[in-house]
Amino acid sequence: MLYFINNYCNIMYYSSLAAIRRAFPPSDKKGFHMPRDASTEKPLVELVNVTKIYPPDVVAAEDVSLRIYKGEILFLTGTSGAGKTTLIKLICCLETPTRGLIEVAGRNLSRISSAGVQRMRQKIGVAYQDFRLLDKQTVLQNIAMAMEVTYASPKLIRFRVEELLELLNLSDKRDKLAGELSRGEQQRVALARAAANGPSLLLADEPTGNLDPVATELVINLFRYLNERNGTTIVVATHDESIYADTEYRVMSLSKGQLSAHPSRAPHQIELFEA
Amino acid sequence: MLYFINNYCNIMYYSSLAAIRRAFPPSDKKGFHMPRDASTEKPLVELVNVTKIYPPDVVAAEDVSLRIYKGEILFLTGTSGAGKTTLIKLICCLETPTRGLIEVAGRNLSRISSAGVQRMRQKIGVAYQDFRLLDKQTVLQNIAMAMEVTYASPKLIRFRVEELLELLNLSDKRDKLAGELSRGEQQRVALARAAANGPSLLLADEPTGNLDPVATELVINLFRYLNERNGTTIVVATHDESIYADTEYRVMSLSKGQLSAHPSRAPHQIELFEA
Amino acid sequence: MRFLAYILRQTGKNLRQTWGTQIMTLLTVTLSVLIFAFFFLIYTNMIRASERLGNDVRLIVYLDQEVPEQMRPEFEKKIRDFAPVEKIVFVSRTEAFAKLSAQLGKEKDVLNDLGPDFLPPSIEVYPLKTLNDLTKISQFSDFLLTLPHAAKVQSGSDWLRRFGYFTNLLRVVVLLSAGLLIISMTFIISYTLRLTVLSRQGELEVLRLLGATSAYIRLPLLLEGMLQGLLGSSLGLAALYSLYQWIANRFSGPGFLKLFDITFFPPEITAGILLTSIVLCTAGSLFSIRRFIRI
Amino acid sequence: MRFLAYILRQTGKNLRQTWGTQIMTLLTVTLSVLIFAFFFLIYTNMIRASERLGNDVRLIVYLDQEVPEQMRPEFEKKIRDFAPVEKIVFVSRTEAFAKLSAQLGKEKDVLNDLGPDFLPPSIEVYPLKTLNDLTKISQFSDFLLTLPHAAKVQSGSDWLRRFGYFTNLLRVVVLLSAGLLIISMTFIISYTLRLTVLSRQGELEVLRLLGATSAYIRLPLLLEGMLQGLLGSSLGLAALYSLYQWIANRFSGPGFLKLFDITFFPPEITAGILLTSIVLCTAGSLFSIRRFIRI
Ligand SMILES: Nc1ncnc2c1ncn2[C@@H]1O[C@H](COP(=O)(O)OP(=O)(O)OP(=O)(O)O)[C@@H](O)[C@H]1O
Ligand SMILES: Nc1ncnc2c1ncn2[C@@H]1O[C@H](COP(=O)(O)OP(=O)(O)OP(=O)(O)O)[C@@H](O)[C@H]1O
Ligand SMILES: [Mg+2]
Ligand SMILES: [Mg+2]
After folding, report:
1. From A49, B51, D35, D195, which residue has the greatest number of CB atoms within 10 Å?
2. Region for residue A257 given its phi and psi (left: phi exceeds 0; alpha: psi -120 to 50; beta: otherwise)
3. Which of A122, A132, A153 minimises the CB distance to C211?
């Protein structure tokens, strides 16, 4: 019963997206959630002294400690090869840390069962840097897949896919094969798939690398919308300064596996977020 | 005999690259080649009323006419799905036009033999938007492959690969598998492969989508260097405004398959280049 | 409910999307079942034929004079002491003649010139079925020659040896073919699994990334495997049955060839083959996705 | 020079990088050659055995009185008019008796009681090898029975029929096995080609993108195919030869079994098999890359 109410609410919120798209001009940044007081609230994701070394000797993360709170938007920056993707893979359990502790929603990832990982992944949407789409399936099928694994009703799937595609300006590509899209279109499909399940945590790895400024804005608006309405926590790994240049959201910077606040940030802001 | 002299020259120029890298600060734009008078010189690439329709009805290029002169650097911009990649694929004969004429180095691509296409491709370096690297081979092998198909000597190959890797800040990744690199590193490997053969035409499709500003500058310097020393003609398809924002090179814009001068360009410049 | 619907829909989707591979797999299963059942059939029939052959073995001891009635038990005892025997029949000159003329039927005029005494008396010894090996038979026949008045022992060993030679050759041919076929089938099955893995790899990886549970991934594949096993083995057995019918019709020779009559599997074995191949196919499809499911 | 060095280096690289697939392909070729050669060997030996069998056919006409010397040409003419015959031998009572006692050897005492006249005279007819079919033989034997004084014709048809039945059964088994094997081999080869294509696809596509010429792509694959063919068929033939040796040793029976003596291929055929498989492997590897080379 609860399930259906939940579905119904989802339908409601998605159907209003198209309208809301005009209601949120890109410069309007009222949606910023201030993080809660670190001492009272349990973070959604917590990394404690995490080190990841790819054999034999590539240090992709070194002693990284990071807390990501529910409802936050976090930008991860860093030069190419700094370890952004590695950090994201660690959070969604695609890689295991060499040392250190990772907790997602209070569960220690090193002790979680295989089935537990899968249940967790259903609630985390990841837009991979290399998309990981199935080239021989249509856009619709690719996005629907993310919802099918949670046994969502076909009607809801259809409905939500349409909304997401409209939101990302891809409506005319719904029945095209993913392999026949342009890279920028594929990138948006990957994002739509990550957002399809209404995840509580969205990890977007370089989500605008192949997008022009207009499409980039669509994506940013989608993030902001998910964050405000759903309280979705969003982590964006990116090089695109235009996205995070003058945002009020937290920006962290990785350099050779070491995490620090972004240099352009004011020091007091840094203290607010560091554990 | 000529072959060896050529090789020798190549070695010379590459060995000086590391030094030249410091000699060309990114803002130093003295390398701009003015295009020759269109009426007297034969263009390296000529497209006449080219239309490309992907079945059943996706119009990726519509009546595109374009001349690219030897020694030019041309930026192709356009929203996602505008047809940039399609245009590049048409030039290197990966797609055939639905209508229209394409000539590269004076040869009509619709009449060229299979062997002719292969010979042509040896002289065109293409950095694909999806990289097309072999994940299970090392960086060295991936780049070397481009030179091996022209039967270059192993010594030259080794030498040039080292230089290119140093130039793109990838020296420590030489013997890593391409599949284990970060996306940004892969992107630079794809560029290195495109440049390895000393091509007379370099087509770079979104070459900086996964690169941070520092790496982007390395790439731009490489382009400028190849252009100035080798006279390499370079076509760059990109969304990254920071690359072409205040360049003196020609910038063309695609929109739904239709080509025009970029709106930010002055009108007199447009007339100079349009056929 | 919804769960079941999903599993079934997913199975249908898989079957539709990879029908090329599916048909190849189906044919592979059919072929495997056909081949194994074929050789199994040959093997069981060979065993039965050699059992029947054992029934036919008969040693005839030709004597140079009749054995009087009262001596017979003594002879019998001697023979039975040497080897277990099913039956011993004493044939007198007259009986032998009567038998021959009965066998000749219309052509018995040939015998007219010869007196009823021209055939020697004999003892027919029918050994137990356990005595089905040529060397044992020839030992037995050597022993029988030591009986008083025994002139010659006809052990049918010439015919037996020819037949034995043949069944041996046939057995070697059958076993070698079966060996080669088993190797081939191993190849085919490993190739099929490799191709299945390759064709599914992309999709299974993405499903894992999206958080699909083991049940969501495994159950459709299990259903598929069962379907493949059921259909494939039914087709294979049907093909074998047609072959059998064809051979049976072709070789329905005259009565004396009953020895080689071939029979099909009884229903239990047919069912066993069906079940085994269903189990194997299911196991195979699980095996092919093992590397995608974390333990 | 550099071109050649490149081709060789490329071939070596391919072999090293895809050794798993290479070994599977090699084993596939070995198995195919072994299987085809195996059945070819059985087939040729079967043909030879049935030819020898033809030599053995002999019809014996038992007569109720001797044929006088001067009548013999007339008899011969009659017989030769009906069917082509290789040899006709007239056996008198005495000759028959002498022959039988020679055959019995030490045991000829059995005959002591019987006069030298107890065996009927006969005519032995050896038909040409072309007459090797049971119905023709029985027609011939019916005809022979119409000769004057013919009492009975022994055509050995009982033995012949058993033997014929057996060779037929063997032939059916061999042909069916061969058929199944050919289907299996088709599967294996198509799977091998598919796997080869899949394992090379990525590399060949990239090579085309980089402007590799057909020669650059094809020649290493050609060399590889030739190597596979040569090695695979040598291994297959070697395996078959060992099998043959084993069987030949096991079945080196006494003289009278010469009928079934098996022989190996003459060198020409061995060479032919080697060549064919080299050609086929080369063609196969070219075929597998066909879709990557524009026409
Ligand atoms: N192989 C194909 N089959 C069908 N349609 C295609 C194919 N390749 C591209 N398209 C379509 O053609 C249009 C132009 O594609 P193209 O890849 O040229 O765009 P692009 O300008 O490179 O975009 P991006 O910046 O996203 O890479 C798109 O709408 C795309 O969906
Ligand atoms: N599977 C792997 N095996 C070995 N090394 C790896 C692997 N994945 C990444 N690395 C190395 O770890 C380092 C960090 O990689 P990562 O992908 O996290 O970088 P990134 O910050 O995402 O870079 P980019 O911006 O280029 O995507 C790089 O040097 C990369 O070469
Ligand atoms: Mg990355
Ligand atoms: Mg593109």
Report:
1. D35
2. left
3. A122
